[in-house]
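Whether sequence alone determines local backbone shape is best considered at the level of individual chains. Part of our work consisted of pairing the sequence of a single chain with a tokenised description of its backbone. This step matters because it turns folding into a mapping between discrete strings. For completeness, the protein is quoted in full, as a sequence line and a line of structure tokens:

_____
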Amino acid sequence: MALYKIQVLESVAVLAVYAVVHYLTKSFVNRSLKQIQLQRGRRKAVVKAVHLMTFVSAVFMLAVVWGVEQSEIAVFVGTTLTVLGIAFFAQWSLLSNFTSSILLLFAHPIKIGDTLRILDKDFPVDGEVSDLTYLFVHLKSFDGGHVITVPNSLILQKSVLIMDRNAREVLEGVVHRPSE
């Protein structure tokens, strides 16, 4: 019975440390990345990645506290990675969109609030970037404010025009060009 009480106390301690680290990393990452003037959407992605790592660490620590054998953890991790590998292979575009999101985060100049035109001859898309996620870029269209989700891989495959303020006003219909 004493071992059970110790495991419960250790579990509570792990969860308390996780909660504190979760809160502190969010404020620390946001504060430090704001100083280097990283855009809000990119800071959100970094915070999500850090939170995922702290969650996995907390789950691992709880497994250690409750005496889960290393071989059982290895079997679980191996099975999970196998299932994820099959899922990503079955949905190759999902993996390419996730990989593209990393490239967009660090190597592409688009950010939330930018006005984009995706230069596709069959289906050109205009809109304001409202969110950058791991799989999609969400564009708010100018004709009724509909949200268009564009796969991240498409942003990297197609030419993208990042428009300035005047071009955006023309698209929104605020400024009318004189007829010629």
In short: The mean pLDDT is 81.
